[in-house]
Design goal:
The longest helix has 15 residues, at 305-319. The protein has helices spanning 13-24, 41-44, 46-57, 62-72, 79-87, 148-151, 168-179, 199-211, 305-319, 363-368, 395-398, 400-408, 412-415, 427-437, 460-467, 477-491, 506-515, and strands at 2-3, 6-9, 29-33, 90-101, 104-109, 119-120, 123-126, 130-132, 145-147, 160-164, 183-188, 215-218, 222-228, 231-236, 241-244, 246-249, 253-255, 292-295, 333-335, 340-345, 352-358, 373-379, 384-392. It has 3 domains: 2-38 and 78-132 and 254-319, FAD/NAD(P)-binding domain, CATH 3.50.50; 140-251, FAD/NAD(P)-binding domain (3-Layer(bba) Sandwich); 339-469, FAD/NAD-linked reductase, C-terminal dimerisation domain (Enolase-like, domain 1). 30% of the residues lie in helices and 22% in strands. The protein starts with a strand and ends in a 9-residue tail after the last helix. The chain is α/β, with parallel strands linked by helices.
């Protein structure tokens, strides 16, 4: 029997970060994982999805994209990650863990692993991730279907594909397969794509997917699936019938909590529900003899890889004795399509001031001819940002400052003074920041706008001046002719000899050549 300070159930992103963090703090730790060490994100989710999207944007063939994906995911081989864990002082146990009693975990070994290995612990961390949920569709079990993980590791390119679910994963997969030539139909039961975000984001993404060749069906749920001679037929509530070779299920996931034996710790597990936790990521509802139980990652209901990593840092700090609380006010939500969708913080609601700006109002947007939009949501009372949504090229990159502004509660008056490089998409934020900060930030008043302003915005004239760029400047034809005449008239007297006010010899010329150059003011 092994005895450890910490036992982590689940070897995904969150579990590994907890394990390495507490091991670095001098604690003994074991990670129990039956699947791939590292979890789904690097092998079956985020990394392969982004690899395929990048290959599509570069015009690669499907075969080349599959090869590139295999390289990016390490061929689904986790041995290198396991070695790095061992090098960090973490014991890796291949198998499925189940709590037998407070302080005791029994492990059913994975195929090929060593025999049962009961593990004793002082702190237990639940980081078992999430699993796909099959929607209640009649006949679903009888048709050829993929989960998102299978869709991101298969070498096959279906001729006709139905993607069921218009959330982030469904939209990314629809764009991937449409880009490589599949006839894709994306089905979403809600009225629009990305139903958890403001409507404009889903509408702009739907338009982009249609331009890529995908068909979008929204507002009608799937009710029945049937096998056909060539594949399958999916029926929708509104009577629509869609034929395809394969169905890809991207319609929902749930925390993976069944079979963990958490009842032995006094923890009640509700099917489909996340583990309840405190601000320190400690699981609530444990019995008096349960000891300290923590949770990080998808089991908490916060289903983003970067959020799980953040929670893992919080858990590790608390286990090591440094109290730390999680703040979820600025956790990014991303869809890495083209255009990308980025959201952070609160969604629009009553009491929040709203400012909008189109990327077409920036020089960078006009140069690329790309559609995009930013919406910012500010709290009227506190005068700080509460949330934001952006649609545009690589939106997650140039919206990072908004994440920082929300997390650090930067005053709107200060944000209105931020200068962005020209030309860049970030310039769209300047107009929105000024609108939220009020007229003084746009150039009117005495420049001392209160942070709580969230005002009505700059005047029309001020906004025009603020958005003026070099691309907006034109030289009328009459001016151009006049300038040309002035230059020519100045050049004509040069034909007459002029006295040279100094002697020029070869030495002087060499010295002047050495001294010529650029100073700091010449650089643009």
């Amino acid at each position: 029997m092994g005895a450890f300070d910490v036992v982590v159930l689940g070897g995904g992103t969150a579990g590994l970060h907890v394990a390495t963090g507490v091991a670095a703090g001098g604690r003994s730790v074991a990670v129990v994982e039956a699947g791939l060490i590292g979890g789904e994100s690097p092998y079956l989710a985020d990394v392969p999805a982004n690899s395929l999207l990048m290959s599509a944007s570069r015009g690669e063939t499907w075969e080349d994209a599959v090869a590139r994906r295999a390289e990016a995911t390490g061929g689904l081989d986790d041995s290198a990650v396991a070695r790095r864990l061992a090098g960090a002082g973490v014991t890796v146990v291949r198998g499925t863990g189940r709590v037998a009693a407070p302080g005791l975990v029994e492990v059913t070994p994975a195929a090929g692993a060593d025999g049962p290995a009961p593990l004793r612990y002082r702190d237990l961390v639940i980081a078992t991730g999430c699993e796909p949920v099959a929607p209640p569709i009649e006949g679903l079990a009888d048709v050829p279907a993929w989960t998102t993980a299978e869709g991101l590791c298969s070498p096959d390119l279906p001729r006709r594909l139905i993607v069921l679910g218009g959330g982030p994963a469904g939209c990314e997969l629809a764009q991937i397969y449409a880009a490589f030539g599949s006839q894709v139909t994306l089905v979403e039961a809600e009225p629009g794509l990305l139903p958890g975000e403001p409507a404009f984001a889903g509408e702009m993404l739907a338009a982009a997917l249609r331009r890529a060749g995908a068909e979008i069906c929204v507002g009608s749920a799937a009710t029945k699936a049937e096998r056909s001679a060539e594949g399958l037929t999916l029926a929708l509530e509104d009577g629509t019938r869609i034929d395809a070779d394969r169905l890809l299920l991207a319609s929902g996931r749930r925390p993976r909590l069944s079979g963990l034996g958490l009842g032995a710790l006094g923890i009640t597990v509700t099917p489909g529900a996340a583990l309840p936790t405190t601000a320190t990521c400690r699981v609530t509802g444990t019995g008096p003899a349960a000891g300290r139980v923590w949770a990080a990652g998808d089991v908490t209901g916060v289903t983003h890889t970067h959020a799980g990593r953040y929670q893992a840092d919080v858990v590790a700090a608390n286990i090591l004795g440094a109290r730390r609380e999680a703040d979820y006010s600025a956790i990014p939500r991303c869809v890495f399509t083209v255009p990308a969708v980025f959201a952070v913080g609160a969604a629009p609601r009553a009491g929040l001031a709203v400012a909008r700006a189109d990327l077409a109002g920036t020089a960078r947007g006009r140069l690329g001819g790309e559609a995009g939009r930013v919406e910012l949501y500010a709290d009227r009372e506190s005068g700080v940002l509460a949330g934001a949504v952006a649609v545009g090229p690589d939106a997650a990159e140039w919206m990072a400052e908004v994440t920082l502004a929300i997390r650090a509660r930067v005053a709107l008056a200060d944000l209105a003074e931020v200068v962005h490089a020209f030309p860049s998409y970030g310039e769209a934020l300047e107009a929105a920041f000024r609108e939220l900060a009020g007229p003084a930030a746009a150039g009117g008043g005495d420049g001392g706008a209160a942070a709580g302003g969230a005002g009505t915005g700059a005047s029309e004239a001020d906004q025009e001046v603020g958005l003026l760029s070099e691309l907006d400047m034109e030289t009328p034809e009459g001016d151009a002719v006049e300038q040309h005449q002035e230059v020519v008239e100045e050049e004509e007297p040069a034909a007459r000899p002029r006295p040279i006010p100094f002697d020029a010899d070869e030495a002087d010329a060499a010295e002047q050549e050495r001294e010529a150059g650029f100073d700091d003011d010449d650089y643009r």
